[in-house]
Amino acid sequence: MKFKSIGELISIYFTVILVFVGLIGGVANAKSFEFADTQPITNPDSLEQWLVRNPAPSLDRLRSLIVLERTYCWGYHDKVGKYLPEISRLTKVYHNQTADAAYRYLRAFAHYYLDYRGQTTLYANQALQAFQLLGDQSGLLNTYGLLVLINIKNYQYKVHSKTQVSKGYLDQIDQILTTNHDPHDLLVAKLAYAWDRAILTEKGIGLMQQTLDQAFEIINKNPSCSYARVQFSRLQAHCYYLHGEAILAYEQSKQLLRQLKPAQFWEMTVVMQNLAGYCYKLRRTDEGIALCQNVITLLTQTKPVKHHIPIKDTYNKYRQLLMQKGDYVEANRLADSIQHYNDRILLAENDEKMLELEARYEDQRKQQQILYLQQQQQQTRLLLLIVAAVLVIVGFLLYRLYQANNQLKALNKSRERFFSIIAHDLRRPMHAFQGMNELVSYYLKNQRYEAIEKLSQAIDEAGARIQLMLDNLLRWALAQRQELPYQPQLLLLAPKLREVVSLFESLPYSDSVVFTVRCSDRLQVYADPDALELILRNLVANALKAIDRQPGRLTIEATIQESSKVSIEVWDSGPGMSSAQLSSVRSVLAHPKDGQLSESNRGLGLILVSEFTHRNRGQLRVESSAESGTRFTLVLPGNNYL
């Protein structure tokens, strides 16, 4: 494959770089939302309907599923885990790290409700690690809150070291709350604190009540947090009961029962179970028996997961109420039912242990597979980064080659211009020396002394032109190599103008030219002295060349413009330039590095004039006509430049 230029090769290189950047970006996991963007909502029905209307996979659907699952955790026990399979599937589709961490958190919550203790702790710790890697403060706070609930459910303050573990989790929550004031996350913290303080001491019950009051204050101030009212109302009733105020616990539970929706079936059974216990305490036996019968009927008909456990507990309360009533025969008959459910619970627990061992093995296998895939992904990233680094190095080398190529072209161009300049500027002065020996001998033999004098003037003129040309060549060569010093300063302009004019007035071929200098003795200009002298000498030399030994005038006038800049005008009384010559000169002034040398644009001198004018932050204009001659206007910074 052939490339037309180095530039084309570099263009293709950058295209390849963009492709690799896209590949590296594609490998990275998407993180389009945070855990704080999936807070629970008060009306899950509307979101469920939206999901039905929008079944297509999307990040919005994934986020909405997480929102629903988090809402179910607060008050819809029967629905917890409903969308976990879809969340898992969409998480893999979109490679979303936040969703993956949320899935593990919700999976832990589902096992928490099902009382799968080993799996609960396993998934909670996985969620904790995932949120730590993301630096997601809301996710960390919620997970620490869940770990407190798990710890209390597993050990219930029977092991002192475990209470210390809960304290460590609560300390982490306190630290996060120093920067996180989201009311939803605050409620999670209050729930963890309320359960942690639910102990049978006066101080513990007082702290629990204080925490519950703070939680209800948050709910009342933030209507979007009303989804948490069910949880805290149940805790409030429990707090009343622990404090010995069974009647308040009873009234709180009755009020909560009236507020529950039909979809909150599990919550209804729990509240009715608690009410039956409060009725036993208040000796409202018949009402308690009726509540137990309702709970047993509901659980037997619906048979939720692990329903045998709450049925056994309800039968125990039912038996206690019958004994309180004095119906010992019916109470003894219930003992068989209680034993039946005890056997089922024991059998179920054994099955759960086996399932838990299988789940742990499967989870470890999946974790190993995930670790393998992550290692493969890291290796792919590393390979892409290495290839990208190689491309960058190659690109840098290509760019250096491109620069060297351009520099070589510039040097070749400069060399060609150099030879062109020498050939152009030396041609005319050297004519004066051609046949010099024969002319002098001829004029001496014929005693034509006036002709010899004119010849000597021509030699002087040629010598002056050669000297100016050599000076210009030296300055031009230094400028091309960027070795010419540039030291601008404020200087008086009038002495510099007179100095330049005096150099040319002494030449024989300028005897017929009247020099005029108009400049205030106090006028100052900001420029490099050597550069200014070179500019003026070339402008004056060009003007004398235009007059071409004829009687004429050369005027230099310096004035101050309104912008406090200094204008220096050099004009002659010569025949002026044609439109083609004027266009050529203006082209050189505008683009000195690209200017072509010719008789019409006055050679190297004009190129230097243009380059040094730009270097001194000046401007140069030219006007010419047959009637008024040629006028160059040089504009330079004045004494206000500093």
Could you describe the largest sheet, including whether it forms a barrel? 5 strands, mixed
| Distance, first to last CA | 57 Å
Give the C-alpha Rg. 50 Å
Q: Mean pLDDT, rounded to whole units?
A: 80
Number of helices: 22
Secondary-structure element series: HHHHHHHHHHHHHHHHHHEHEEHEEHHEE
**CATH architecture field of the domain at 485-636:** 2-Layer Sandwich
Structural class: alpha+beta
The geometry reads as: rod-shaped
* Record field, number of beta strands: 7
Give the spatial strand order of the biggest sheet: 2-4-5-7-6
> What is the CATH third-level topology name of the domain at 485-636?
Heat Shock Protein 90
CATH class of the domain at 485-636: Alpha Beta
Give a structural overview.
The chain has 22 helices and 7 strands. With 642 residues, the protein is of the alpha+beta class. It has a 5-stranded mixed beta sheet. Strands 1-3 form a two-stranded antiparallel sheet. Strand 4 and strand 5 form a beta hairpin. Helix 1 runs antiparallel to helix 16 (328-431) and helix 6 packs antiparallel against helix 7 (137-155). The longest helix is centred in the middle third of the chain and has 104 residues, at 328-431. It is rod-shaped. The chain starts with 5 loop residues before the first helix and ends in a 6-residue tail after the last strand. 32% of the residues are buried. Residues 23-31, 157-161 and 597-601 have low confidence and may be disordered.
How would you briefly describe this protein structure?
The protein is of the alpha+beta class and 642 residues long.
